[in-house]
Amino acid sequence: MTEQNSNNEEAVDQDKELQKVFPFFKSWRALYTFVLAELVVLIILFYLFSNYFS
Amino acid sequence: MRTLDWVVMGGTILFIILYGIYKSRGAKDIRSYLLSDNNLKWWTIGLSIMATQASAITFLSTPGQAFNDGMRFVQFYFGVPVAMVLISMIAIPIYRKLNVFTAYEYLEQRFDLKTRTLGTILFLIGRSLAAGITIVAPAIILEVLLGWEIWITCFGIGILVMVYTVSGGSKAVAQTQQQQMAIILIGMIIAGVVMVLKLPSELSFGEALTIAGANNKLNVISLPSSVGNFFQDKYNLLSGLIAGSFLALSYFGTDQSQVQRYLGGKSVTEIRIGLLFNGIFKVPMQFGILFIGAMMFVFYQFEDAPMLFNESARAEILASDLKEDYLQAEENYTSLNQEGKLLWEEWSRSGNEGSMEKAIIRNDSAAQIKKQILANVAEKAPSINTKDQDRIFLTFVLDHLPIGLVGLLMAVIFSAAMSSTAAELNALASTTSIDIYKRMVKQDASDEHYLKMSKRFTLMWGIFAILFAITAGQYENLIEYVNILGSLFYGTILGLFVVAFFMKKINGSAVFIGALISETLVLAIFFLPKLFPDVLGILDIGYLWLNLIGCILVMLFSWIFQRVS
Fold first, then answer.
1. CB spacing of A47 vs B209 below 8 angstroms
2. Nearest by Cα to B277 from A20, A34, A30, A27
3. CB interface of B with A, residues 239-278, below 8 Å
4. pLDDT tens digit string along B515-548?
5. How many whole angstroms separate alpha carbon B538 and alpha carbon B474?
6. ipTM > 0.90?
7. Do residues B221 and B70 lie in contact, with contact meaning Cβ atoms separated by under 8 Å?
8. Which residues are within 8 A (CB) of B538 and not within 5 positions of it... i.e. 6 or more apart?
9. Any B CB within 8 A of A26 CB
10. Cβ distance of A35 and B220 shorter than 8 Å
11. Chain A residues lying within 8 Å of B216, measured CB to CB
């Protein structure tokens, strides 16, 4: 019983941990979107950079 | 190297090692030794991941890559942000929930012992050889350019790394990597600034960019020129995004030398932010390093540049029957370069487009001369390795940076070599301790015993890496093969994990047989076209794609065997 309680507490702690987000973003999904959007922006900028100086 | 350079280099390296030992003192149990007490913050994790990936060759070779081939190599890293997001979303919650020491522990929890052992063995083979290469690759270059004996450099790097990795384990690796990465970034920024400042004063930065662009050195984005080139062209937008993502997923998500960097994180949040930090900054960082190479190309438009930066190869050619041809090519090359220099100066003064066009034509002709004579050497004297990409940046550093900064850049090279090697030894020791010794040899020993054995395994792998490095130093071609070795195994390892994460109905036996068959096929796809180029040469694909092929084959065969059984 005690072990079961302890397991439940651990699971709750892990769930809470998974919910914590970096301060400037509302959710993890927003942060992931930001990272992938930065990649897209970089590719576009690199493309323009390559074309301009080619 | 002058006295001040030795002081800067030695002082920097010594400080980092002592700092690492001090910050990691008192590791009292196996969790503390292998997982840094699960106390790492996101910035330590982020820098540690970055430092593990960036070996000395990254900093020696990457500017040379841009010098020769332009900046398109940056596309190789486009998969990193994608992989970081996927690992953060999928793998981190699972690793964390299971509280594992190594990635391969998860394979047993999901499948069985034999699948875990297969993953462990594939990792140990690939990474142990790679650890030796991480040490010897810069040693070979330093021998040629500075006359340092290969075995002394290998011993130097190996012993220094072992001092803090054996004593402080994972925490020492993470703490030193923070300092090493700081030195690397500072050193490379200074090198880039000095490079730009050393351009002729009458040349504006915009004109420097125009020269680099006109010579195709700012070609950051390239698309495959034909369907045939899709699989054979190593660096283009699609191979970077697709194959690069699979390589990055394999490396960051399943290679223990990277997984161990973030398993010691304080929380899921810290780990995820550390990974995403890499996803955000890795591509711009590589762009910066390649940009240094593009500016170096512009610098050498106004300076005397050797046709071949590989002095030892040049000496070998001059000792062969090709001497006369080579000297003639060299004379023509130098003459074209001199004419090019005058034309660029004329263009910079007057803005005359005609001068620019003539200078570009001369550059193309000079490049053609170099290409032809090297092709001739490759045909008539194939034992001479004329590759000079790794030597260009260090030649610039030694010839053109002021006293003191040469020492700092040498510290950058040693820091990069040491940070990667330390992470590799630490991961090899963890996997040997946890996945082999604790699981299969001695299951019920005390924590102190496993701690003692982990230190011994670190020492053992360190000695192996040094000995392999010294042996590999005698056979330069061996190094190229070992560098590709990772890609031969990564696809299969990633396949094991993808099946574990997403194909819930597949059992251990099916995935195990599927992985064995896939690995055999990947080896066949890689080696057969090289053994029989006349018949199978058309199947010779860029090694980046092997990650994707290996992964898909494991998924496919696992599914088939599960259906059959």
1. no
2. A34
3. 267-269, 272-273, 276
4. 999 999 999 988 888 788 777 777 777 777 888 8
5. 32
6. no
7. no
8. B529
9. no
10. no
11. 54
